[in-house]
Amino acid sequence: MLENGVRLDGYSFVLVLKGCARVGLVRKGMQVHGLLWKMNFGFDVLLQNSLIGFFVRYGCVELARQVFDRGEKFDYLEFDK
Question: Residue 45: CA atoms inside 13 Å, Cβ hemisphere, count?
């Protein structure tokens, strides 16, 4: 979408995260999370809730907690799924 010049908003990312969750694309969901921060969507409450749900679904409770606490440092290296 970005390569084709499609303008993304918070709702776009919510749908992408839901899609990743439904088919088990955990790493892609994490990449989406990184993109959210780069595009300054990181503090959007709707997206935070989606990220928390995504991470909890796959047992990444610590990452979900970091999102909840609005932490900016995320360590994905220890997650091996």
Answer: 0
| Domain layout of the chain by residue ranges | 10-68
On whether the CB atoms of residues 9 and 64 are closer than 8 A, the answer is no
Total residues found in the chain within this entry = 81
**Three-class secondary structure assignment of the chain:** CCCCCCCCCHHHHHHHHHHHHHHCCHHHHHHHHHHHHHCCCCCCHHHHHHHHHHHHHCCCHHHHHHHHCCCCCCCCCCCCC
Tell me the per-residue pLDDT of 45-74, one tens digit each, with 9 for 90 and over: 888 889 999 999 989 999 999 888 875 445
